[in-house]
Design brief:
It is found in: Cytoplasm. The protein contains eight helices and nine strands. With 212 residues, the protein is an alpha/beta fold. The structure holds adenosine-5'-triphosphate.
Length: 212
């Protein structure tokens, strides 16, 4: 993310892709303005938070008018669409990993999974979703330096040693889909997504906070 000109809080930065996707849809449907209430309804973020987020990048909505869709679109494009592609590797071509290889991240982001690694001989040497699968032993040799992000979809017990190797190889960000809590040096960014926990949490909220 290009935050050179504008320093925005991390929590705001995390919501930008969400806003961006919605604004893109609005723009393609020919809408010229949007109110924070409409945005709030669509992206499920309260409108006070939206107004505060937008104020960080100078989008000051006018009362009774809302926000200019073109302005927002230009801002998001500049901020989120890096000029060059971000190259991503995926480690662990199991059920989840395979789904990601088939999923076209390029549609909405400038990110591309360029190679995958596994230890299962039946997968090595194959191409899944157009992405070649190599043996994990070849990571040091095969992975080019421009691969800066890794998706981890391996069994939890092997997540930490693999993360260590990725960091050693120069990876700057890891999206960890394993339930393992991985330790990385301070300068490496790691995001944890535990789908089982997310699902459990959704069920919990449905049960304890049912909407009227
Ligand atoms: P599958 O049905 O293919 O086993 P899964 O998602 O249920 O998928 P997992 O046991 O979670 O299976 O393993 C995910 C993937 O990680 C598998 O393809 C497995 O071969 C791979 N894997 C296991 N250990 C390692 C390792 N040390 N390094 C890289 N990949 C590994």
């Amino acid at each position: 993310m290009n935050n050179e000109q504008i320093k925005i809080p991390q929590a705001t930065a995390k919501r930008l892709p969400l806003y961006y996707r919605f604004i893109q849809n609005l723009h393609s449907s020919g809408k010229q303005r949007v109110s924070s209430a409409e945005l709030s309804e669509a992206v499920k973020v309260d409108s006070a938070t939206i107004r505060r987020d937008f104020s960080y990048f100078g989008a000051l909505g006018k009362k009774g008018y809302g926000y200019n869709v073109q302005y927002l679109l230009t801002f998001f494009r500049k901020t989120l669409d890096q000029d060059e592609l971000t190259y991503v590797t995926l480690i662990g071509v199991g059920n989840l990993g395979t789904a990601f290889l088939h999923y076209n991240f390029m549609k909405n982001n400038n990110t591309k999974i360029v190679m995958a690694f596994d230890v299962d001989e039946s997968k090595i040497g194959s191409e899944i979703g157009g992405v070649p699968v190599y043996h994990l032993d070849d990571i040091e040799e095969q992975m080019p330096e421009n691969v800066t992000v890794a998706i981890l979809t391996v069994p939890a017990p092997v997540a930490q040693p693999i993360a260590d190797r990725l960091v050693e190889k120069g990876v700057k960000g890891i999206l960890n889909f394993t339930p393992a809590r991985i330790n990385v040096p301070e300068e490496i960014r790691i995001h944890h997504i535990d789908l089982a926990v997310e699902l459990q949490s959704l069920v919990y909220f449905l049960k304890h906070y049912p909407s009227e």
